[in-house]
Structures are given as structure tokens and as C-alpha cells.
Protein 1
Amino acid sequence: MSLSPKLAKLLNDQINNEMAASYSYLAMAAWFEQTPYVGFAGWMAAQSREETVHALKFYQYLVDRGAKVVLEPIGKPQHDFKSPQDVFACSLKQEEAVTAQINDLYEVAEKVRDHAAKNLLLWFLNEQMEEEKSVRDMLERLQLAGDDPASLLVLDREAGSRSTAPSSFKNGVK
Ligand SMILES: [Fe+2]
Ligand SMILES: [Fe+2]
């Protein structure tokens, strides 16, 4: 069964959305690199790699279904932030936007009765739930920490250990 042109177009768009998310996380990592928060820089760099893996997953899916891959330019990401809380709030907004994109994709896949594509998108919906949760949890704790340097450094260390955890992004597959 070949992909419907509409679904193929939207899956191509999603490659771009995931690469834009990856680029945006890289800008967040770069912002943290200019601060003492090395752990958060590592977290954002790991997120960036993870989004690239997502883009490649959509790329490979299109290839496997015999559809054409068309790459579009990626916009300039936001590069300036007010605080660690501000960065994580932006990250959460970004994840919520991606969840909405995948939801829309799932609806189109359902409409054209492409059950194989639904299966792929279901994986992404679960992934989005996890990502939103980990960002939301960290944001809530950052808000509790406020401006207290000791609390912020504890969270930074925790974020740093997460970014090197074996489950996070190693080998480019999940
Ligand atoms: Fe993603
Ligand atoms: Fe994500």
C-alpha cells in the first residue's frame, strides 16, 4: 500500500519540524554553555540529538514506504533566554506543539485508513507523553528552586546525569 500524497507531505513536514526542534534545543544548549549550568547544557544537547533521531525515523519511514523525501530549510531558533526556567518553559511549549503536530498526523492517517502509519505515529505519541512529562517535572522543580543557587546546582547536577543515561539517546535508536 503506497502512502497517500497528503500523508507523505505531512510526514515530510514532520522531518522539518523535528529538525527545527533539534536546532532549537541546540540553541538552548549553547545558551546554557555560557552559564555555570553544565548539566542543563548536557540535557539540551541530548534532547537535540534525540530530535534528530526522530527526524531520521520519519525519513526512514518515507524511504521504506517508497515515498519521496523532500528537505526544506530550517528556521533560525530562539537563542536568547532570561533564565533556566525560561529555557525549560520554551522547551515545554515546543514539546506541546510537536504533540499537536503528531496528533494531527495521526488523524490524517486514520482518515486515509493507513494503519501502518498509525502504528508509527502511536510510538511518537507515547514518546511525546514521556518528553512532556520529563520537561514539565524539571520546570516545576526549577520554579520551586527560584533564584536559590544551591537548589539550582542540585537540579543542574541531576539534569547532567540524565543526559548521560544509557537510555537517553545512545546508538541513535530507541
Ligand atoms: Fe521529537
Ligand atoms: Fe521532543
Note: The radius of gyration is 17 Å.
Protein 2
Amino acid sequence: MKNCSEKIDQPVPFVDLGLQYENHHAAFEKAIIDTAASTQYIMGAEVSRFEKDFSDFLGVREVVSVASGTDALRLSCLAHDIGPADEILVPANTFIASILGVCELGAQPIPVDVDPETHLLDISDAETRITSKTKGIIPVHLYGQTLNMDSLLDFAERHGLFIIEDACQAHGAEWNGKKAGGFATTGCFSFFPSKNLGAFGDGGAIAVNDSSIAKKLRLLRNYGSIEKYVHETIGTNSRLDSIQAAILNVKLTHLEKWNNNRFCAASRYSNGLADLKSIKTPLFDSSLSQNHVFHLFVIQCEHRDKLQQYLTDRGIQTGIHYPVPIHLHKAFEPWGYSEGTCPIAEKLSKNILSLPMFPEITNNQIDIVINAIKEFYNYEL
Ligand SMILES: Cc1ncc(COP(=O)(O)O)c(C=O)c1O
């Protein structure tokens, strides 16, 4: 009998932002100092450069930077004139921020169940939730994989719905060679530090293909004004700081390489865990997502809570994305949803586990995680 109770020598973090800083600190420090010296702290050259370079990267007409991913979604909702009479379809398995803009504007988020393999919004389930009040849909490219955008665009067109893409976890993910965030009127990104493209604080952006929507968003993010003291509409203050833009300008040049590293790490996990019957690894299926950028590596597993505790005890950090489907949160009480509304999302929330994933993760660290999982199922249960 193997003794598996010992802690491993080197803990494996869930994400290691320190390594990325160490590897590129000279460029980051220069970017910060140059911006400080420029005194252009709000908007300015670094912000314009980031908006241009990120729009080129995504292949979209324009990018409007904002203060966070949550604001990108909220301002997109405002730009689509969502109001209390509207129902908006949203996936049951996502981070709550995906739907906060909908709620803030008084519209009703309608939870849609998810696909049991990809954990993404299930378009066939969405068909069953359409009513005369349905106005739009917010697909979330969760974990770094895109929805089947051909099916989604067809669905939205048939029902006359707008689409706001939540690409907050999918910087660089593609469907048929086109980047996530570039399919709809607006595509929303978060630059929360641990994202595939992360700032040194909060930040967000909206990818836009329609110049009149882009103009509306530029007004909304800046007190309803483009020209100083000329206020065309009621807006807010939601801008990307110049220092954050300067950091993102450095990081954007590394994004493809980092996404590739994540893909290689995911591939090693998948191969290493392939023969374990108690585990289901994410699909590597080109018909589902042609470029998964593995923001998260999420497995389905038996005895999830025990496995998570076992890994924690051995110094391996994991996460759960997400432990409660959105419609079962207390915040959703006003709409009266109960268990059974989205059975697949509800079941997944009890058996999913996110393994350590970041571009600098080493093969040795991945093997430590794989071996610990194998030990758990082979010896501990
Ligand atoms: C799917 C999803 N949507 C929205 C957000 C909100 O982004 P932010 O934290 O930048 O407000 C996040 C970030 O955590 C997210 O993962």
C-alpha cells in the first residue's frame, strides 16, 4: 500500500502571477515609469494604442476600453437598450458578473441549461426558453472555449435576438478562424489579473463592429461625453487606466505564446488522466471549438469534494467554476427559480474541479497533479 498522505515538496499553485512578473519585469517596469512620466494618466496614447492593437488582434472594427469586464457587459446592455420588459437568455453555469448588467437594468435573466460535455450554454435548451419577451442572449465562452457560433448566430437570427458575447475568459479563442468577441454587435473582455490577458488591476474592453454602437459606448464610458463639457447622454465613469493599458500593451505581444503554453499543458493533463475512469477531461474536439485557450482546465470527477481536499492537503490548489448555478444564488430569489430549472448545470456544479493552469506551469507540476489524482482514485478511496 502506497503512503499518499505526505505533502509534496513543492506546492502547485492554481495560478502563479509571480512567474509572469519575474520573466517580464523589466518591460512592465519601463511601461509603468514611462506612463508615469508622460502624465497622461487618463486615456492618452497607451489607451489608444491598446484599443488599436487589441482590435487588430481580434479582427474587429473597434475596441472600446472600459474599467472592468463587468462594466463591458453592463455598458453593452445599456447600448442595446435593455429594459424591464425584456427577458435575456443566459447560461446557468457562469460567473455572476455575466448577468449583473441585465439585472441592473431591470430585465429578467432567463437561465439556460448547459451542454454536459462543454459546460457551455445549450442552444437546444435555449429554444425551449424563448417567449414573446425574449430580446437577447449572452453566450459565455466559458473556460476559454467558444460556443458553436454558427448555431448561435442562426438561433439569434431566427428569433430576432441581439447577442452580447461574454468573452471574459476567452482572449484569443477562435471559431472557424474568427476570434471570440468578434461575432456579435458587442464582445466583452475582462483584464482581471489572472485572465489569459490580465492587467495589474481591474480593466475591461468591448469589441465592436458597428461604429454607431462604438460611439454610444465611448459616450457611456466617459460621462456621456466625447467633447469636454458636452454631454450628449447620461453616462458614467468607466475608463481603462493608462498604466493598465501600458501593461496590457506589453502582455498582448505574448498572448499567443501564453495561450499555446496553456494548450500544451491541457494536452498533457488530458493524456495523463485519460485512463482514469472516475475522471472526464475536457473535449479536444475541433467541431466544438477550434481554438480552446484553456483559461481553465475543468474536469468532471467522482467524489469531487474528497478529491479537492486530498489535493489541498498535498499543497495542490484547485478551484470550482462554479459551485452554484446562477439561478440558485440568493440574489436570484426575486425570480423564484428552484432546483430542477437547469438540471445539467446543477449536476455539474457538484462534480467539476478546475486544476492548476497558467502559461508557466511546468511539466513536472502537471505530473505532480496527475499523479496525486491517480493516487487518490487508486489507493485512497
Ligand atoms: C465569464 C466572466 N464574465 C464576467 C467577468 C467579470 O469581469 P471583471 O472581473 O473584470 O469585472 C468575469 C471575470 O471574472 C468572467 O469570468
Note: The first strand starts at residue 62 and ends at 66.
